[in-house]
């Protein structure tokens, strides 16, 4: 009799815990936050490999409100077009080389801009996208030599320059655009280069 009572008590505890988890999940589904979508996208490694955005384990088309469901559809469409997801942004690397100015125009055609690095984790992710000669950053000191700014107008605070960089091209004195160099250590891979130099382009657009 004692064994049966104990078993019933354990079963009740498990059911209570299950109900608690279901209630929590329901509250999350009702939220309009993009974090729901990011939760269903599981992890960022999917997008480094360029795999399709995974479907929800609980059929998001039925569980999500129309606004969030549309966001998920948009992410799927971008991913199928070659964009990669990380945190709250989508990224795309060009298949042809272009100078910094043309590269920025290229990004803007997709309602994006040249990539802005906000964290070490983002730097590691973006570095995984580059190949061959590297890719342009949305970083320049064209306005004021030595004062590096991102294309969103913010001044550079955390950097990942190669040793001895930026040096403004030494004697040339005309290296005003930032680029990620392929084959260098991830956190020491930036170089300043002439803006008319041809390189691949990484575009970034926010989905938050």
Structure summary:
This protein has 208 residues and is an alpha+beta fold.
Question: Which helices and strands occur, and which strands form pairs?
Answer:
Layout: H1 2-30, H2 34-40, H3 45-48, H4 60-63, H5 66-80, E1 84-86, E2 89-93, H6 100-108, E3 113-114, H7 120-127, E4 135-140, E5 149-150, E6 177-180, E7 190-193, E8 200-206
Parallel strand pairs: 4-8
Antiparallel strand pairs: 1-2, 2-8, 3-8, 4-5, 4-6, 6-7
* First-last Cα distance: 57 Å
pLDDT averaged over residues: 76
Domain unit count: 2
Helical/strand content category = alpha+beta
What do you see in this structure?
There is one protein chain. This protein is of the alpha+beta class and 208 residues long. The protein has two domains: 2-86, no CATH class; 89-206, Mannose-Binding Protein A, subunit A (Mannose-Binding Protein A, Chain A, Roll), CATH 3.10.100. Helices cover 37% and strands 16% of the residues. Strands 1, 2, 3, 4, 5, 6, 7 and 8 form an eight-stranded mixed beta sheet that branches.
List keywords for this structure.
208 residues, 8 strands, 7 helices, disordered N terminus, Mannose-Binding Protein A, Chain A, 37% helix, eight-stranded mixed beta sheet, alpha+beta, single chain
